[in-house]
Specification:
By secondary structure, the chain is α+β, with helices and mostly antiparallel strands. About 40% of the residues lie in helices and about 20% in strands.
């Protein structure tokens, strides 16, 4: 295509370059100088018309919006093949938009405006050429557009931008449904509710790309771009300059102070540290009761004296202690759990107690109690520890005073368990009993005094597969009787031997 001929026949440039290029190409397409299928090359057009690529590109986009040109990504543009149906659709769309323009422009027009329109109509009656007719038609609609303020086009853009999907846009254009669409103002929403495009018109508008409509407000976008670039420069200065950042912070703080600041109602002064002294608990002696199921409770000492016989018969552990003391629970896992007496419920004698599981770290499903005593008594005594593998030791009770709720009471070998813990100060002899039926009695002094972290020394030589079942502490002058094979058996009659011997098997 020889674009030089187009340039020679082009009207004199008047106004924006983009609009001038658009009119040249549009007129050339309409009068057949650029027939259907003609490839439109931006480089050739810009060279022939002596303009840059930008107005040519924008003119092609404007022509595509009117259905006269089809732009192919990365392949340029071609003139559209216009059928009778497509032309009718274009005219229908144009007629609807013209109607909207006319409806909005007429109330704003003056007598001079009407005179200009009438002059264009009269002039159109006396011209025969297509180009002249198109030029007059363009003047006619340009005047209407100026008076209407591009309101219809702007409204369509606002609908497109404020909608979430094509269906919303279509319902608004055809039926005036504005639900779900974001408008800039109430007046825009009311105007949108009055739109009544046909299905074809709405489809044609939806087929336009948004950038083509945005081109109608290019000046506004350019202004926004300039403002954005200005803000970017400002923000970069704030991020890179400490003084600028400090200035912004100070201004924000002043604004916050002005908006929300109130006078201080309290006085800050250099005073001494406030010390809160908790009221000391009134110290008193109480009675601790725990049944065989591990339920524990505290009762008044006087209540215990009144029900002494029943209390001793129904409970596994019964002893007096101070309400400021702790209860120590030694288990077969080699742990000691402590509970403050003050944390144990003080109840009436017949009231049910609270499980040890709920008051400490003790877990009845994983371990078994073997010794329970108040901490005061533990500290003043020496404790004997005996394990199932026959390891023995004496430990000073003062080692078990600790702030933690759970500590390790003794060191155990792998697969070993603790079977006995008892107060040994008043006792003189130790008796060990194995599951195999062997008994060994020896002097307490044969057992070494050690730290709680030690394993101990061997008490009895056990046969293969045998292990200790019980341990006992005896006074030499007092007789101790147990039940063995359903018969009474006096432990004092067991032959006195040395520690670390085999023991004897009684004939009962």
């Amino acid at each position: 295509m020889d674009y030089q001929l187009l340039a020679k026949s082009a009207p004199q440039k008047n106004g924006a370059t983009q609009e001038w290029v658009f009119q040249i190409l549009r007129n050339s397409i309409i009068n057949g100088d650029l027939p259907s299928g003609t490839q439109l090359k931006q480089d050739e057009i810009s060279t022939a018309l002596c303009v840059s690529h930008i107005p040519v590109r924008e003119a092609l986009r404007q022509l595509e919006a009117q259905g006269l040109v089809r732009i192919h990504p990365n392949r340029g543009a071609t003139v559209t093949q216009l059928s009778r149906d497509s032309l009718e659709d274009m005219m229908e769309i144009r007629a609807s938009i013209s109607y909207c323009l006319l409806r909005r422009a007429v109330p704003l027009m003056t007598r001079d405006d009407f005179a200009q329109l009438q002059e264009i109509i009269e002039e159109e009656k006396h011209v025969a050429g297509l180009m002249e007719t198109e030029a007059l038609n363009y003047r006619f609609h340009e005047l209407l557009t100026k008076k209407a303020g591009n309101s219809t086009a702007d409204l369509i853009i606002e609908i497109l931008r404020g909608s979430k999907n094509r269906e919303q846009v279509k319902k608004c254009l055809v039926d005036g449904v504005t639900e779900g669409i974001r408008f800039k103002s109430k007046s825009s929403e009311k105007a949108a509710q009055k739109l009544h495009f046909s299905e074809k018109q709405a489809a044609a508008i939806l087929d336009m790309r948004l950038y083509k409509l945005i081109g109608l407000e290019i000046e506004a976008l350019q202004a926004d771009y300039a403002e954005t670039m200005k803000n970017i420069a400002l923000y970069e200065d704030i991020l890179n300059n400490y003084d600028s950042m400090a200035d912004v912070i100070m201004k924000d703080l002043d604004k916050i102070k002005k908006e929300y600041g109130t006078k201080r109602r309290t006085v800050i002064e250099n005073a001494e540290e406030v010390i809160y002294e908790e009221k000391k608990m009134e110290e008193m002696e109480v009675t601790f009761l725990m049944d065989r199921f591990g339920y524990m409770r505290i009762i008044d000492k006087s209540a215990y004296e009144r029900n002494k016989e029943a209390a001793n018969a129904e409970n596994k552990y019964v002893f007096n202690c101070m309400n400021t003391d702790k209860i120590c629970i030694f288990t077969d896992s080699g742990k000691m759990h402590s509970i403050k007496v003050a944390d144990i419920p003080l109840v009436r004698f017949r009231d049910k107690g609270t499980p040890a599981d709920n008051l400490s770290n003790y877990d009845s499903a994983q371990e078994r109690m073997i010794y329970v005593a108040p901490l005061a008594a533990v500290k003043e005594n020496t404790l004997l520890f005996v394990t199932a593998s026959s390891m023995c030791k004496l430990v000073n009770g003062a080692e078990f005073e600790a702030s933690k709720r759970t500590i390790v009471s003794t060191k155990l070998a792998e697969d070993d368990t603790l079977i006995f813990v008892g107060a040994a100060d008043e006792m003189e002899q130790v008796v060990l009993q194995s599951e195999g039926g062997y008994f060994l009695r020896f002097q307490k002094q044969d057992v070494s005094s050690m730290k709680k972290t030690s394993i101990g020394v061997r008490g009895m030589k056990l046969a293969e597969g045998d292990k200790l079942d019980h341990a006992y502490l005896l006074e030499s002058r007092q007789e101790y009787t147990i039940t063995y094979h359903d018969k009474p058996y006096v432990l004092n009659k067991v032959k006195l031997s040395k520690r670390d011997s085999k023991g004897v098997k009684p004939r009962v």
